[in-house]
Amino acid sequence: YPNNKWIKTNLSLSYVLQDKFSEAMKIYQEYKDKIYKGRQLKTVFLNDIDKLIEKGITHKDFEKVKQFLNN
Known about the structure:
By secondary structure, the protein is mostly helical. Helix content is 66%, strand content 6%. The chain has a two-stranded antiparallel sheet with strand order 1-2.
């Protein structure tokens, strides 16, 4: 399903939560600058992490991902 970019947002986050950081980073690197429904995917990635944090779900690599996406 290469045209379903939204799937990559879920997949990358699931990799982070499973401690598969390098797999997640491959997706973040490839998709962060792509546009989906008028939004840059890095914004979607960051919003997803923020939503989890707001709900009390944290991970040691969230900050590393956020730093990467914000640069």
